[in-house]
What we know:
Blueprint: E1 10-16, E2 29-37, E3 47-49, E4 60-64, E5 76-81, E6 89-98, E7 114-119, E8 122-127, E9 137-145, E10 151-160, H1 164-170
Antiparallel strand pairs: 1-5, 1-7, 2-3, 2-6, 4-5, 6-9, 7-8, 9-10
Amino acid sequence: MSTVSEGLGKVEVRLRWDPSPLGEPPRHLDIIAATYSAEAPYGRPVYVVHYDSRSPDGTINMSRHSRTGQGFGFVEVMSLEFRRLSSAYARVVVGVAIHQDGGPRTFGDLSNAGALIVDGYTELMADDFALVAASTATTLAEFVRDDSGAWELREMIRGFDSDPVLFTAEMGGT
């Protein structure tokens, strides 16, 4: 468990959604994290982590991935180890994007969708995507270093109308 002076430790971003109704194409959501340098915290991401990748140093990775949702709780999980993340990075933005392979889908089209962010056993944030129901992608949170170098979470619910590839380029903007 992290204290105020230590900042965040190993954080998990968890995602849940129910499978598509019978006869519809699978619903596929992805957690995406973009890491920004200390020199340009609002510039281009240094690297992006999603279901098919991990950070170069292994501090951000997917420990669970689903292409369909299962209806059994949190089926996709991304781990972020902030205590091990290099001081070269000052900001990490985490979001969720819906793949649009089966036609346009928004968060309002999903059932039982939600995200949970925890640090150990401490719940930091929970969201059900109601504020971004008309969007196809959303940021959830940004993690930033404070003056002491400790990481903190800032809620950042902001909807986008883009596919996962475009979303990774625009999710960290101001």
